[in-house]
Write a structure and sequence with these properties.
Helix content: 10-25%
Oligomer: single chain
Radius of gyration: 29 Å
InterPro entries: Aldolase_TIM, GH, Glycosyl_hydrolases_36
Strand content: 25-35%
Low-confidence stretches: 1-85
Function: Transglycosidase operating by a ping-pong reaction mechanism. Involved in the synthesis of raffinose, a major soluble carbohydrate in seeds, roots and tubers.
CATH topology of the largest domain: TIM Barrel
Structural class: alpha+beta
Catalytic activity: alpha-D-galactosyl-(1->3)-1D-myo-inositol + sucrose = raffinose + myo-inositol
CATH architecture of the largest domain: Alpha-Beta Barrel
CATH superfamily of the largest domain: Aldolase class I
Number of helices: 12
Largest sheet: 7 strands, antiparallel
CATH class of the largest domain: Alpha Beta
Number of strands: 28
Number of domains: 2
Strand order of the largest sheet: 5-6-7-10-17-16-15
Shape: globular
Keywords: Carbohydrate metabolism
Mean pLDDT: 84
Protein name: galactinol--sucrose galactosyltransferase
Length: 555
């Protein structure tokens, strides 16, 4: 199949519906079909009479020959020693230590250990993969990939472990730590000019997952764009990377982004795009989440009161999400012999971190007359009395904020173990509060990855039997901090998400899942089931600083 670009000084015509190129010559008005697989075939096909033809360039499938001719010369030009032949140049390439995109220089000073790999294997002729080679194996690498100046860009970076926000700028130092998406716009060119070489060019940078490593971009004070690669496990090391960043270019930003994501999907083969997934029914209805009304103090009576209030106000919801506060949880017991340790003293400055102690609801959601009915009671009330179509409940991807509590009889089969998060440097620099966060100080009860499907399936099957239609799965990015001794952050995230996808597919046929606190590429690039993702951090009515970020993320 040919591309849709063909340049000629005296003619230009392309038939896009056929695997051939049709050229119309003004001198003889004859249409010549050029469909060839060798220089010899091409010369035989056209030697019958194209005269007065100017220099032209054709972009075609790599299986076909690529030729260029001078006026009156039907023989391919000889390639002189030391001189590059007149061949089609890739749309994105590294040349003379520059990243060149559609003949515009985007990055300068590209180091020699940064390598480029063609994107054609991913179905793209407009993109390239970047990687780097290092002298020693390590679990974390940072390398500059070139200097970024004299452009405009929009990026998405994680300002918290859980959430992304937008950032705009025009030089490398403006690129924030933990940047997971970068769209660069050239300053030269015009949207009004239909000629490609005169149009504004957009370049998408997508840092990827490569093996057990996850990549992000960041800038430094010298305006260098840096590539940061991390495994999250000191024992998971590497020194050579070839497909850590995908770069794609085009003249329409929306098309360019869409094509880039598709190329990455074909390359990674680990996720599906939204249009390939089933959207749950709740997306078509107005609904209510209990979090802002009650936080963790939600009760069955509170849910009923909220539904009645919304109906009385003329906005009856068709679904409800019973957020955090319905589960059976408890803090760790305090042991007297630890009272003198500095670690314990640090912990006592905080409230004990709650951990999951059972898969069933707590007493707030049990019917006083018949506790065995459990959470099914509020489900029946919501449907029969208030006409709701869907009822969802909340849980963390690790069960609860503090995970699953070890040593609890009901939870013994899951093999939970207390692990302490190892938060990446970029996240800590963006969110310094992680150093004293309750999860960092008190640890998290992580279910053994080998048992996590059993955990999800038993939890979800209990909920499905009670009439629950889906789950809001929160705290997802915490997995990236817990990969030590488990193969690293990417591997742990993959195992948990595969188990989660399988359980949701089995227990909630409407694909009833909402992802929350999940804005890392570890999760985004391994999701095959989840079609709905919460877009932003909380909206805090009394905190004006939060308003702009929230509105920009969800508008």
């Amino acid at each position: 199949m040919v591309s849709n670009t063909c340049y000629c000084s005296r003619f230009l015509a392309i038939n896009r519906s056929l695997p051939s190129i049709y050229l119309h010559s003004k001198s003889n008005q004859r249409r010549i079909s050029l469909f060839f697989r060798s220089k010899q075939n091409f010369q035989k096909r056209v030697s019958s009479g194209i005269s007065g033809v100017g220099v032209f360039r054709v972009s075609i499938n790599p299986a076909l020959s690529v030729l260029s001719f001078k006026k009156g010369d039907l023989k391919p030009p000889l390639k002189k020693e030391g001189v590059e032949g007149m061949t089609i140049k890739p749309a994105v390439r590294i040349s003379e230590r520059k990243l060149v995109v559609k003949e515009r220089t985007i990055l300068t000073g590209v180091p020699e250990n940064v390598i480029a790999t063609s994107g054609t294997a991913a179905g793209s002729v407009e993109g390239v993969f970047l990687g780097a080679v290092f002298d020693e194996e390590n679990s974390r690498h940072v390398v500059p990939i070139g200097t970024l100046r004299d452009v405009r860009f929009m990026s998405c970076f994680r300002f918290k472990l859980w959430w992304m926000a937008q950032k705009m700028g025009d030089q490398g130092k403006d690129v924030r730590l933990e940047t997971q998406f970068l769209l660069v716009e050239t300053k030269d060119g015009s949207h009004l000019d239909s000629t490609e070489e005169n149009q504004i060019v957009y370049t998408v940078f997508l840092p990827l997952i490569e093996g057990p490593f996850r990549a992000v971009l960041q800038g430094n004070q010298n305006d260098q764009l840096e590539l940061c690669l991390e495994s999250g496990d000191a024992d998971t090391k590497a020194s050579s990377f070839t497909h850590s960043v995908y770069i794609h270019a085009g003249t329409d930003p929306f098309t360019t982004i869409t094509e880039a994501i598709r190329a990455v999907k074909l390359h990674l083969k680990t996720f599906r795009q939204r249009h390939e997934k089933k959207l749950p029914g709740i997306v078509d209805y107005f609904g209510w989440c209990t979090w802002d009304a009650f936080y963790q103090d939600v009760t069955q009576e509170g849910v009923e009161a909220g539904l009645e209030s919304l109906a009385a106000g003329g906005t009856p919801p068709k679904f409800v999400i019973i957020d955090d506060g319905w589960q059976s949880v408890c803090g760790d017991p305090r042991e007297e012999d630890k009272s003198s340790s500095s670690a314990y003293q640090a912990e006592t400055k905080q409230q004990p971190l709650l951990r999951l102690t059972g898969i069933k609801e707590n007493e707030k959601f049990q019917n006083k007359d018949d506790p065995t009915v459990g959470i099914k009671n509020i489900v029946n009330i919501a449907r029969e009395k208030h006409g709701l179509k869907y009822v969802y409940v909340w849980h963390a991807i690790t069960g609860y904020w503090g995970g699953v509590r070890p040593g609890v009889e009901e939870m013994e089969g899951y093999g939970s173990r207390i692990r302490y998060p190892m938060v990446s440097k970029g996240v800590v620099d963006n969110e310094p509060g992680w150093k004293t966060d309750a999860i960092a100080v008190q640890g998290l009860g992580l279910v053994n990855p080998k048992n996590v499907y059993k955990f999800y399936n038993e939890l979800h099957s209990y909920l499905a039997d009670a009439g629950i239609d889906g789950v809001k799965v929160d705290v997802q990015c915490i997995l990236e901090t817990l990969g030590a001794e488990l193969g690293g952050r990417v591997e742990l995230t993959r195992q948990y998400h595969q188990a989660l996808d399988a359980s949701v597919g089995r227990n909630f046929p409407d694909n009833g899942i909402i992802a929350c606190m999940s804005h890392n590429t570890d999760a985004l690039y391994c999701s095959k089931q989840t079609a709905v993702v919460r877009a932003s951090d909380d909206f805090y009515p009394r905190d004006p600083v939060s308003h702009t970020i929230h509105i920009a993320a969800v508008a």
